[in-house]
Amino acid sequence: MIVNHIGIYGICIRDNKLLCIQKERGPYKNRFDLPGGSQKENEGLTETLVREFREETGYEIENYVNCRVYDAFVEESNRTVHHIMVFYDVDINLEQQDTISEKLEDELNDSSGIYWIDLEELDIKNSSPLILKLKQELSNHKNTLEKVIYKNWEIL
């Protein structure tokens, strides 16, 4: 069975460190991931980006640029998730973080916190396919636009 999942994600890099969340559940549990998530009904891409980024990090996005789309197939034990990921580079004001955890109406925030992780420390042992795709992009890999298939994805 193949399940399609579309998510919108913000990328914030400062001093070679990536702003990450750590997932509490789902196929990327206990891995670092990009802040972002799924659209709500009648919500545009950038509205989702701003809302999800704030919910998961507490930061307001001041600017977003460079929209691009990638995909990966993540094969779990009984299903394959076709993860379509929309990336935006984002700017935030580090001095204006809302530390109040938002209670979401119809969903749970699946992040256990935010972390600034050095890009060299992020790999398949600790990161989601989204971060792995970003690292591929940053390395100017010639196949960045091609899909990636993760067979027998290990949930940590």
Structural notes for this entry:
There is one protein chain. With 156 residues, this protein is mainly beta. The chain has one domain (2-94, 107-150): Nucleoside Triphosphate Pyrophosphohydrolase. The chain contains two helices and nine strands; from the N terminus they run E-E-E-E-E-H-E-E-E-H-E. The chain has helices at residues 45-57, 129-138; strands spanning 2-11, 13-14, 17-23, 32-33, 36-37, 59-75, 80-97, 111-118, 148-150. The chain has a five-stranded mixed sheet with strand order 5-1-7-6-9. Strands 2, 3, 4 and 8 form a four-stranded antiparallel sheet that branches. Strand 2 (13-14) and strand 3 (17-23) form a beta hairpin. The longest helix has 13 residues, at 45-57. The radius of gyration is 15 Å and the shape is globular. Residues 100-107 have low confidence and may be disordered.
